[in-house]
Give the backbone structure.
Amino acid sequence: DIQMTQSPSSLSASVGDRVTITCRASQSISTYLNWYQQRPGKAPKLLIYAASTLQSGVPSRFSGSGSGTDFTLTINSLQPEDFATYYCQQSFRAPALTFGGGTKVEV
Amino acid sequence: EVQLVESGGGLVKPGGSLRLSCVASGFTFSTYTMTWVRQAPGKGLEWLSSISNSSSYISYADSLKGRFTISRDNAKNSLYLQMNNLRAEDAAVFYCARVSYDSNGFFSSFDFWGQGTLVTVSS
């Protein structure tokens, strides 16, 4: 299985901050990398697929980059609704699309 | 509007069984691969199983050890997860999700999710 490691596991930020979350794959996955947002008590929501493509309806302050083994999710100008947990997911080794452990963004 | 609504969760004793359902609407269910993902309390997301649109291709996480069975009924726009010999560590919120494909026909992401159904395993 491909292991996905996110860092940090949690971070504190303020409204207006720029936040960066890192995801590392245990082997090269090209750009087969997705990012999800999960607000407390809610289902995950797809933010970015193929490492850098914004899902329809997702605000442009979210961006993704990377290829191979190292990936980044960036949130520019953090908004109150962005305080949530973020997960990366590899889609290289389908159908077992494994997730990272999550990064909680809190105040 | 795409909607996925799970049901069937609840309290079950260790060793017991439960069948989860997921009813889809707002898209042509019979053309999509579907999947189940679970989330134990306070933990991360774990992919469990996927089933292709015609049920021809089915896959499971190794951790399930043959205790779970995924199925679907395209006439009813429904996805199922039969869970047997449940253990305390199976307690989680179970989500169904739709699988999207990229332009090359490869698995891409889980683009729509249901709200989840909670399974509690306790004596």
Remarks:
- The mean pLDDT of chain A is 95.
- The CA atoms of residues 33 and 60 of chain A lie 18 Å apart.
